[in-house]
Design goal:
By secondary structure, this protein is of the alpha+beta class. It has 5 domains: 250 residues, Rossmann fold (3-Layer(aba) Sandwich); 81 residues, Elongation Factor Tu (Ef-tu), domain 3, CATH 2.40.30; 72 residues, Elongation Factor G (Translational Gtpase), domain 3 (Alpha-Beta Plaits); 115 residues, Ribosomal Protein S5, domain 2, CATH 3.30.230.10; 77 residues, 2-Layer Sandwich (Alpha-Beta Plaits). It contains 16 helices and 35 strands. The chain has a 7-stranded mixed beta sheet with strand order 2-3-1-4-5-9-6, sandwiched between helices. Strands 25, 29, 31, 32, 33, 34 and 35 form a 7-stranded mixed beta sheet that branches. Strands 16-15-18-11-10-19 form a 6-stranded antiparallel beta sheet. α1 crosses α9, α6 packs across α8 and α12 packs across α13.
Length: 664
């Protein structure tokens, strides 16, 4: 990746389960570094990184927000991400552009489902991470229990570097266990000996000294931890109470000490990725870009490798919460908002792709919902507004069926619908109505089979295709390959077929996306005179649908991985509910006076269960959930979706409809 950059920098994402105190921690980092003069608050709607009206009103983060501060001559880009599971797509996009992370865990609630999910994503991308146990001043704070949970549910390599002084209302700060002559900590596991024990599992010289009983200086332990922390093999753990500003300076020191700076060279050819798109009232579309190699300057022409287009940069801005300044250039290792790229989308690679890390896949929308305008006259404005919001969050996947005046979007959950309603009103002045959301099913072939199409009428046209269709492994998606040689079917026509296969599989026999299958093109033929370049675009859906009609398809339903915790007295009722909802669950456990059960639930049977559980348990029941994949539905579950457009199985009608659309 090149040499370390001359300016000392850190690119850090701040992550947590909802309500663990991310935005409050960010606010205090900005305040203690001198970046802001007065503290904002989430509750009063004055936090720097909650810039949307809806975020200030509801006190939750909906979009990731970039801000920056300097500490001891190091420039730190900080991305504050949402904690609510409905906005997981924002977290996913931020993860990709970070060199280091802070994962906040509440000292009261401990490790929660979103904490685990983010942790696994950080691990899969090998992102060095600091663990910060917040809310040490709250009633019920239990650092020893939380450390045990972290070791069990996240990583055994969490190494406490600060020990708490006091707890709950007596919490007054923390002592550095890696400082020379630090007193032994009253909390088990929070001392130098515990750090040495953990690190000796990774480091041979340290292990030898530990076994032989040789005293190891605290300085040496810190140096060893720094080395492994920056490689993402050990994870320094801190404690604090962000709302009181306790532990904040220690956290800033730890960012410098234990998280790596970006690598890359400003002199190399450009390699950058777009991780967020926003619309600015004066500058239009702004693309938030992380640069891995090279430099972007005002008035540069950039090549968008994902879309195959070139566009000119009009301005480069440093966005800091609600403020922005024109900086003229952004170089390797830095993050900025680039204006002038009108065709850019989230995830696009600018320049070379080889220095850009892969994107994690966490967020899977499980619900589809129809949106209605207040009147027919408002539909064009509503389509334009939702298209803009889809640019900012591609997972909304807006579908506009013009002939039937139907608008559909995909969402993660009901909170997201409330936020969309509020956004359409406050930002676009539109009153939209959303139907009840319905679950997104999928289909998969029931058996192997063949699809054949000879599209040779009405002239001029000629496209002959034969597909082999086979069921794939669960979770494998679509696997496509061609066995046809170039002299049989020209490369340009083969590329057209490959491009059209995923489109054609968006609607199967039951109207749902077809997945977990292998499609092989076994034969293809064009005609020297009669073939038109778009003939294969018309033929591919007909050949595939004819094949699916032969194989038949099975319905797949989305599952949720859930963890339910209730007072023990409600345990029996929860188990009875789980059986009714067709859940598959592990034997329940009793932890203290709490009943805990984990398992998999069909999304369709459990949409309103969080509300029901809360009502039943007097608000003391907690359900946390994450996407658990798709699995075959029981035979008695029927779910068919109305097809959009003409069915390719009705070939003559389909050819007429498509040819007319292509010509216009």
């Amino acid at each position: 990746m090149g040499k370390q950059l001359s300016v000392s920098r850190r690119n850090v994402g701040i992550f947590a389960h909802v309500d663990a105190g991310k935005t409050t921690t960010t606010e205090h980092l900005l305040y203690h570094s001198g970046r802001i003069r007065a503290l904002g608050s989430v509750d009063s709607g004055t936090a720097q990184t909650d810039s949307m009206d809806v975020e200030r009103e509801r006190g939750i983060s909906v979009r990731s927000a970039t801000t920056a501060f300097s500490w001891k001559e190091t420039f730190i880009n900080l991305v504050d991400t949402p904690g609510h599971v409905d906005f997981l797509s924002e977290v996913e996009r931020s993860l990709r552009v970070m060199d280091g992370a802070i994962l906040i865990v509440s000292a009261v609630e401990g490790v929660q489902s979103q904490t685990e999910m983010i942790w696994h994503a950080l691990q899969s991308l090998k992102i060095p991470t600091l663990l910060y146990v917040n809310k040490m001043d709250r009633i019920g704070a239990d650092p020893a229990r939380v450390l045990q949970e972290i070791h069990k549910q996240l990583t055994p390599m969490a190494v406490p570097i600060y020990a708490p002084l006091g707890i709950e209302d007596t919490f007054r700060g923390a002592v550095n266990v890696l400082a020379e002559g630090a007193p032994s900590a009253p909390t088990p596991g929070f001392d130098l000996a515990a750090a040495v024990e953990k690190l000796s599992e990774l480091d041979e010289p340290l292990l030898s000294s530990y076994i032989e009983g040789v005293p190891i200086p605290a300085r040496e332990v810190k140096t060893t931890l720094q080395r492994y922390a920056r490689q993402g093999m050990a994870y320094p753990l801190l404690v604090g109470a962000s709302s009181k500003g306790i532990g904040i300076e220690e956290l800033m020191e730890a960012i410098l000490d234990y998280l790596p700076g970006p690598s890359g060279s400003a002199e190399q050819p450009l390699s950058a990725v777009v991780f967020k798109v926003e619309r600015d009232k004066t500058m239009g579309r702004m693309a938030y870009v992380r640069v891995y190699e090279g430099t972007i300057r005002n008035r540069d022409t950039l090549f968008n490798a994902t879309r195959g287009v070139e566009e000119k940069v009009t301005q480069i801005r440093k966005i800091d919460g609600r403020r922005a300044e024109d900086i003229g250039l952004v170089a390797a290792g830095d993050i900025a908002a680039v204006c002038g790229l009108t065709q850019v989308r989230i995830g696009d690679v600018l320049g070379r792709s080889d220095a850009v890390p892969p994107a994690p896949r966490l967020a899977v929308p499980l619900l589809t919902v129809q949106v209605h305008a207040q009147s027919d006259a408002q539909y064009p404005a509503l389509v334009a507004a939702l298209q803009e919001l889809t640019d900012e969050d591609p997972l909304l996947d807006l579908q506009w069926i013009q002939e039937e005046r139907e608008l559909h979007v995909k969402v993660m959950g009901t909170i997201q619908l409330e936020i969309l309603t509020s956004l359409l009103d406050s930002r676009f002045g539109l009153q939209a109505r959303f139907d009840q959301p319905s679950v997104i099913y999928k289909e998969t072939p029931s058996k192997s089979g063949e699809g054949f199409i000879a599209y040779t009428m009405p002239k001029p046209c000629w496209a002959i295709l034969r597909f082999q269709i086979e069921p794939g492994e669960p979770g494998s998606g679509l696997v496509y390959q061609s066995l046809v040689r170039g002299e049989q079917l020209l490369a340009q026509y083969q590329n057209e077929v490959e491009r059209r296969v995923p489109e054609a599989l968006q609607q199967g026999l039951l109207g749902w996306e077809v997945t977990d299958l292998k499609v092989t093109l076994t034969y293809g033929e064009h005609h020297v005179w009669h073939t038109h370049p778009l003939d294969f675009a018309v033929a591919t859906p007909m050949g595939l649908m004819q094949g699916l009609a032969e194989t038949g398809t099975k319905l797949l339903e989305p599952m949720l991985q859930v963890r339910i915790t209730v007072p023990e007295v409600y345990g029996g009722k929860v188990l009875s509910d789980l059986v009714q909802m067709r859940a598959i669950f592990d034997p329940p456990q009793i932890s203290g006076d709490r009943f805990v059960v984990e398992g998999r639930l069909p999304a369709a049977t459990s949409l309103d269960y969080p509300v029901k559980l809360s009502a039943m348990s007097g608000g003391r029941g907690v359900i946390t959930s994450s996407f658990g994949g798709y699995q075959p539905s029981p035979p008695d579950v029927q779910a068919e979706r109305k097809r959009r457009g003409v069915n390719p199985l009705d070939q003559s009608k389909y050819i007429l409809a498509v040819r007319k659309a292509l010509s216009t």
